[in-house]
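Protein 1 of 2
SEQ + STRUCT:
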Amino acid sequence: MSKQPRKQRKFRYQAPLHIRHKMMSVNLSPELREEHNTRSLPVRKGDTVKVRRGDFKDHEGKVEGIDLKHYRVMIEGLNVQKPDGNQVYHPVHPSNLMIVDMDLDDDERNEILERKG
């Protein structure tokens, strides 16, 4: 793999969905790290996350949506008002988040945690 910034950018812009999903990894809280013996996991709809940087620092909310094309996460309660009065989600980059509570309803996700741990 190349170190050149232009090739790194090209890789991110042209990455297929299965790799984009891995790039959407978010650090786990210290309690979850200890419990599951892993540092980070790809974020999913239904997880509860805490914002660690930016205008909405320390805000906790449930993940409402994930934008794989632009590498952004939509969080419940993180809204901004547009000039026409509409409320829209304020997208946040996953590097600025921390998973506080995971949605463990999915069997595949449980298998991933067992495999990593």
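Protein 2 of 2
SEQ + STRUCT:
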Amino acid sequence: MLADLRAVDGALYAAVAATPTPALDRGLRRLSHAADHSKISFTVAAGLALAGGRRARTAALVGVGAIAVASASANLLGKRLVRRRRPDREAARVTVARHVPMPSSASFPSGHTASAVAFATAVGVVLPPASVPLSLLAWAVGYSRVHTGVHYPGDVAGGALLGVASAGVSLAGARAWARRAEIH
């Protein structure tokens, strides 16, 4: 079954690589780069913290906490345990116009996706009006990693699942901290 999943994953990767999308290439390359080190999410969090009220500040804090959990889980655990090789974008003929620097870390899970989904999910729970735009942005970040040739779709799916779990951890921690603060 695992071999079949890898075959589907590789076929999806190859299909994205083979589809000419010159109107999207530059924008998705820039989005992928802008998502490095969660720059987009941290910028949104800063905006929420500075311009929003108490609920927006809480959302920003929980979102940043979710990024921390997702990033550590993906980069310190997931990539080291799974050790999946990055895609060979030359063999797949990913057009150079899409290229971003190929990371030296393992491919699974996508840390960019894990962090973007974690942030979107955590912020969306606390601040529901932000849920749809942040979820769409997280989806676009995940897709950009396949489009630029640095991840397989399965890496992105694994990162998304890790992101949802990381948001849950951050939200649970925030709830526990708030209950503890009420007691004291």
